[in-house]
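Sample intake sheet
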Amino acid sequence: MEVLPVASMGTGAFALVIALGLYFKVKSGPEGSPEMARIARYIREGAMAFLSREYKVLAVYALAVFAAMAVFISWKAGLSFLSGAFLSLLAGFFGMKAATFANVRTAEQAKLNGKPAALVMALDGGAVMGLCVAGLGLIGMGALYMLFKDSVGDELRKTHEDLGTYIHSFAVGASSIALFARIGGGIYTKAADVGADIVGKVEANIPEDDPRNPGVIADNVGDNVGDIAGMGADIYESYVAAVVATMALALTLPQAALQALAPTVTDLGKLRALAIALPLLLATIGLVVSILGIFITRTMKNMPPATVLRIALVLPPFLVLGVAALVLPQFAIAFGALVTLGAGALGGAAVGLVTDYYTSMGPVERVAKAALTGPGTNVIRGLAVGLESVCIPLVLLCVVGFVSNSYLGLYGIALAAVGMLSGTAIVMTVDAYGPIADNAGGIAEMGHMGKDIRAITDELDSVGNTTAAVGKGFAIGSAVLTVVALFAAFNMEVNVMRHAHGLADLSLNLVDSDVLMGLLFGAILPCIVGASTMTAVGNAAGAIVEEIRRQFREIPGLLEGKEGVEPQPARIVDLATAAAIKQMMLPGAVAVLSPVIIGWVLGPKVLAGSLAGALAVGATLSLMMANGGGAWDNAKKFIEKGGLPGHGKGSDAHKAAVVGDTVGDPFKDTSGPGISILIKVMGVVSLLIAPLIALR
C-alpha cells in the first residue's frame, strides 16, 4: 500500500490527459452553419458569465471559511478545505467548457453522419466531465493521503493535526461548494426553463426551442450551468464523501470492528492503515474500469442510444468486482470486503434500473394519459409516481446496508457506498451526455436544421432525460449509505474525545428528549431547503415570464417571426443569473451552518439526532422529487412523440403535460438534488466539528 497514493494520483492524472485529448477532439469537430456557431457562442458566453459571477461569490465564502478554520482548527485544515473547494469547482468548469463546444457539434454530426456519430460526439463531451470528476477527486485525496498518512492517532486528533482532520476538511470544501453550485445552477436552469415554457409553449403556442422566444438561449445556458457544472460538483462531492466516510471510520473504529476486514493482520497499526487505504484503492480500480468502459461504449455507437447508455451504466460494477476479486487477496483482505463492495455496486445498479423504470416506462405512460383530463390530474398522477418510486430504492438500500453490516459492520456500509460510486467517471459521462444532447436539439431548432435532424436530437435528448434521472438515483442512493457512515464516524469521533476526558460514551436512545428533539430538527431542514429552492425558482421564473411577455409585446414583429427581428436574450440571462446567485445563499447557509449551530448550542446528542432525522426525510424527499420530476418530463415528451394518438403537440393534453413538467422541473433539477447534498454536507460538517463539540 506504500505506492498507493502515487498510483492513485497517477491514475487521476492519466484520466485528465484522456479528458484533454477528448476535449481537443470535440473542439476540432465542425460547428455547422454560421447561424449555429453564433447560437452556440451565445450559450457558451452566457454559461461562462454565470460561472464567473457565481465563482466570485463562492471565492468570498471559501476565504471566509478558510479564515475561520485557520483560527479554530488549523491552517492546514483550512488549506485542505480550499483544496476540496477548488477541485470541486474545477471539475464543473472543465466539464462545462467541453459541453458548450460539444452541443453544436453534436447537432452538426447528426446532419453530416447521422445518429451514431452524434451519439459519440455527445458521449465524448460528457466523458470530459466524467474523467475530470473522478481524476481530480483521486488526485486530491491521494495527495492528502500521501502527505499525512503517518499522522494517525488519538493524541494527534486532540490537536487537530491528524489525517482525519485534513480529509474531513477536504470533504467539507467539496460538499459545501457542490451545494452552492448545484442549487445556484439549478435555480438558474429551471427558472429559465419554466419561464420560457410558460410563455412560449403554453401562451404563445410556439415550439420549445423556437428562436423567437428570448428565453431559449437562457434555457440552453441553464442546461450547462445546472446539469453540467452543478451536477459535476454534486457527483464529485458524492465521490469524495464516500471515500472520506470510509477513511474516517477506519481511523476511529476499534481493532475488533476492523478485524473482519483482514483476519490474518493482527497488528492494529497495519490493520488500520489497510482499512484507511482500501477505499482509495477501490476508487483507483473504479477509475481504470470506467476509462475502459468509456471506450467500450464508443464502439457500440450503432446500437440504439438507450441500449448503449444502459450498458454503460450497468457494465462498470461487474468489471470493478472482477478486478477487485483479483487484487484484494494480494493484500490479505477477506472475501467479506468483496461481498460488501459487490452489494454496493450491484445495489447502485439496481437503484438505477428502478429509477429507469419510473422515469421511462409504464409509469410515464400513465402520467401522460392523466393529462387527457387536464393539468390537475397530470400533476396528481406525477406526485403519486414520485411517492411510489421511493419504496423499492430505499428497500434495496436497506438490503445493501444489512448485507454489508453482516460482513464488515459499519465499515462495510461505508465500503458499499464506495462500491456504488466506483464507476463515477462513466456515470458522470452518461449524465453529462443528456444536457449536451438537449442543447444540440435546441441549436438544431434555432438553426433551422430541419425535422429529420431534430428527430435525431430529440431521441438522444429523451434518452438523456432518463439517464440523468438514473444518475440522480446513483447520487441519492450513495448519499444514504455515505451519511450512515458519516453518522457512525461522527459518534466515534465524539467518543474518542469523551474517553480522553473520562466521560461516558454518547448515548443515542430514542426516548431521550435530546435525541427526539434532534430528530425533529433534522426533519425540518430538508423541508426548508426544498421550500426555499422551489420558491426561488418560482420567483425567478415569474420575473422571466414578465420579461418575455414584454419583449413579445414591445418588439414589433418578434412573435410573428418577421425577418430581421431578433429577441433580446441577454436580459433573460442576466435576470436568471442575478436570481440564482442571490437565492442560493439561504439553502446553502442552512446546510453549512445548521450542524454548527445545533452542535454548539445544544450539544452532540441533539446533533446526532438531527443527522438521523435529516437522513430519513431527506432521502425520501430527494428520491420522490427526482423521480416524479423525471416522470413528468418524459410524459410530456411521450405525448410530443405521438404516444397519445390524436393528442400531439399543441393539444390540450400536451399543454396539461407541460404544466406537469413545469412543476417537475424544479423538483428534479433543483430541490431534489439540493436536499440530497444537504444531508451529506450536514454529515461532513458534523464530522469536522465533532472534536470541538464533544464535551458540550
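Comment: The mean pLDDT is 83. The radius of gyration is 24 Å.
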